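Kindly draft a sequence, keeping tokens residue-aligned:
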Amino acid sequence: MNDSPLSRLDALRFLERIQTRDLDRTRRWIADEERRETERQRRLTARPPDPDWLIERGLTGQTAVYVHQGPCHMAGKRSHGVQQDEALRALVEGVDACPHCRPDTALGFFG
């Protein structure tokens, strides 16, 4: 058994080792988070832009039920992006315009 009390210098060196270990761990966490953030940014920039126009299909997927502007928050999961001419054609053929984003107004369609 060691009966000598721990010297102040020994205690400070022990504390330094603990703090160094903690600092190393914190730096690893920071590096991991920086990698995750870089990857998230890369995914965001690699993602294709949202379409300008959407057509939302009904439950069966056969019938178009709404035309939306691309960023419309009311567009359902059964929506898919279309070109402007297809959105306009759908409105001409009687597909309803979303009452929230008003694609008919944006397309100049007053049918």
In short: Residues 7-47 form one domain. Strands lie at 53-57, 64-69, 79-82, 96-97. The chain has two domains: 7-47, 53-106. The CA atoms of residues 36 and 67 lie 37 Å apart.
